[in-house]
């Protein structure tokens, strides 16, 4: 199975490599006669890397899952082709899956990503409540909060928290039966059982057994069953059975239950029987903490000044999705390893140009500071210092003025960028320069040039 292969690979390569090279691949088909396993990628660069560096790891993973040797062939396909393949022939996609399935169809399917645990979940004001209740549930399943409903936007850590609950419970009580499933998988298994006319009864029995004989059911992205009546009905019974036998249910969704409008009212109300915890987008500090944590995991020196700047830059730019936040960082790290270049702001900008695209080019205080220093030929440490000489204080005030004018940063935040100055100092600089600009056309011209450079 593809997921088994991926998780096998995941254990043998670094997280960065896994995400950069393997996660985007799509399995195409298995040629049993020629013993070839075909996968597709739309990125020829990635294909080159995979072929030269990772093919043996890949083939070993395939072998250990299928218990047979296959040659792995990576085909280049356009994104469109891949999409069509995934959409149109989901039949074909499952062909690979079905090869091994048959009688094993309902074997325990859950897969908990070892990287999603409580230890590496960064807690901030955006998620501390969800984290606290998730931990409480993990410590005492079915005792404190049942059901637990977690909701929040995409990429904010719902799946991570659910897996963390699963790991924790299994760690402390290895015999407990934990089942993690995406609602999509739940639905597709149900459909398979329903469609199998010949074995309908046994299939349905197996399905029910699988979902009702657990101690903990973690069901992800429940919004997926909106509008799907038979899935909802089946899930309703599953829910009731588990609840009645005091089994823990954890549900995640991209919305509050009351916003799941295309859902059976009975389910909607059950979801609200106990705790509902939301996860909000992380604030700047939490984003930085997440990135630093991630960088550390990747063995990157996070005390390095350039790295700190890059982290700030990414944290300023990617605000609403931790998955994207992390992938910007992993990309930079893996590119720096491939190209054997140091990670600097310039390198990051160049390689994350899709994120820093000119259309919504986001000017940061960092850029302003640097540009101003260059213009006046002084050092960053000078502009951040307490030196009062005009050759330093003038550029400093101009830089503060520009930060105030060109970014959304608050006065205290700007102060931090300039050696931890008080917000009143920043305000004073801003007002002073604004006033001067009105009468001093030379200075207006000077500032206009700096702005050009910045942009
Ligand atoms: P969701 O399920 O809400 O779409 P995920 O749980 O898949 O989001 O999280 C997306 C990525 O962000 C994952 O790699 C996850 O490890 C990471 N992530 C999310 N929240 C945190 C956090 N608080 N600390 C560390 N990593 C996080
Ligand atoms: Mg998720």
From TrEMBL:
Top-rank taxon: Bacteria
Q: Which SUPFAM superfamilies match?
A: P-loop containing nucleoside triphosphate hydrolases, TrpR-like
The UniProt family comment states: Belongs to the DnaA family.
- The entry's protein name is Chromosomal replication initiator protein DnaA
Its annotated function is as follows:
Plays an essential role in the initiation and regulation of chromosomal replication. ATP-DnaA binds to the origin of replication (oriC) to initiate formation of the DNA replication initiation complex once per cell cycle. Binds the DnaA box (a 9 base pair repeat at the origin) and separates the double-stranded (ds)DNA. Forms a right-handed helical filament on oriC DNA; dsDNA binds to the exterior of the filament while single-stranded (ss)DNA is stabiized in the filament's interior.
* Compartments where found: Cytoplasm
**Gene for this chain:** dnaA
The answer to keyword DNA-binding applying to this record is yes
Q: Mainly localized where? A: cytoplasm
HAMAP family listed in its UniProt record: DnaA_bact
Subunit comment: Oligomerizes as a right-handed, spiral filament on DNA at oriC.
Give the domain section of the comments: Domain I is involved in oligomerization and binding regulators, domain II is flexibile and of varying length in different bacteria, domain III forms the AAA+ region, while domain IV binds dsDNA.
Under the heading SMART domains, the entry gives: AAA, Bac_DnaA_C
Give a yes or no for keyword Coiled coil in this entry.
Answer: no
Sorted UniProt keywords:
ATP-binding, Cytoplasm, DNA replication, DNA-binding, Lipid-binding, Nucleotide-binding
Renumbered residue ranges of the record's region Domain I, interacts with DnaA modulators: 1-81
Could you tell me which PROSITE patterns the record lists for this protein?
DNAA
């Amino acid at each position: 199975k593809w997921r088994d292969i991926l998780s096998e690979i995941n254990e043998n390569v670094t997280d960065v490599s896994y995400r950069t090279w393997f996660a985007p691949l799509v399995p195409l088909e298995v040629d049993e006669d020629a013993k070839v396993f075909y996968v597709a990628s739309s990125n020829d660069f990635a294909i080159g890397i995979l072929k030269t560096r990772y093919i043996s790891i890949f083939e070993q993973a395939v072998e250990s899952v299928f218990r047979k040797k296959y040659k792995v062939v990576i085909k280049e396909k356009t994104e469109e082709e891949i999409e069509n393949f995934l959409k149109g022939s989901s039949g074909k996609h499952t062909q690979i899956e079905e090869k091994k399935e048959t009688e094993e169809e309902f074997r325990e399917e859950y897969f908990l990503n070892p990287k999603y645990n409580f230890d590496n979940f960064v807690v901030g004001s955006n998620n501390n409540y969800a984290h606290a209740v998730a931990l409480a549930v993990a410590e005492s399943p079915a005792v404190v909060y049942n059901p637990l409903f977690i909701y929040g936007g995409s990429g904010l850590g719902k799946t991570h928290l659910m897996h963390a609950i699963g790991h924790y419970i299994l760690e402390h009580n290895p015999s407990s039966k934990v089942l993690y499933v995406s609602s999509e998988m739940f639905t597709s298994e149900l459909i398979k059982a329903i469609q199998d006319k010949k074995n309908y009864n046994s299939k349905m029995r197996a399905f029910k057994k699988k979902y009702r004989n657990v101690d903990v059911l973690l069901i992800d992205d429940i919004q997926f069953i909106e509008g799907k009546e038979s899935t909802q009905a089946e899930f309703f019974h599953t829910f009731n059975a588990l609840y009645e036998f005091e089994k823990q249910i954890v549900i995640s969704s991209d919305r509050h239950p009351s916003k799941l409008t295309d859902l059976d009212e009975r389910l909607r109300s059950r979801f609200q029987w106990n705790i509902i915890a939301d996860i909000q987008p992380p604030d700047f500090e939490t984003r930085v903490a997440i990135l630093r944590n991630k960088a550390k995991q990747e063995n990157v020196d996070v005390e390095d000044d350039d790295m700190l700047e890059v982290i700030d830059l990414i944290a300023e730019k990617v605000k609403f999705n931790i998955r994207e936040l992390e992938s910007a960082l992993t990309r930079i790290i893996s590119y720096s390893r491939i190209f054997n270049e140091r990670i600097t702001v310039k390198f990051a900008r160049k390689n994350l140009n899709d994120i820093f695209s000119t259309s919504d080019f986001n000017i940061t205080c960092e850029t302003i500071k640097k540009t101003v220093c260059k213009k006046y030929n002084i050092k960053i440490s000078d502009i951040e210092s307490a030196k009062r000489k005009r050759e330093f204080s003038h550029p400093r005030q101009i830089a503060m003025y520009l930060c105030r004018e060109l970014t959304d940063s608050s006065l205290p935040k700007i102060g931090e960028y300039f050696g931890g100055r008080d917000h009143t100092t920043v305000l004073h600089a801003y007002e002073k320069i604004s006033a001067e600009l009105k009468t001093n056309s030379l200075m207006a011209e000077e500032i206009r040039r700096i702005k050009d450079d910045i942009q």
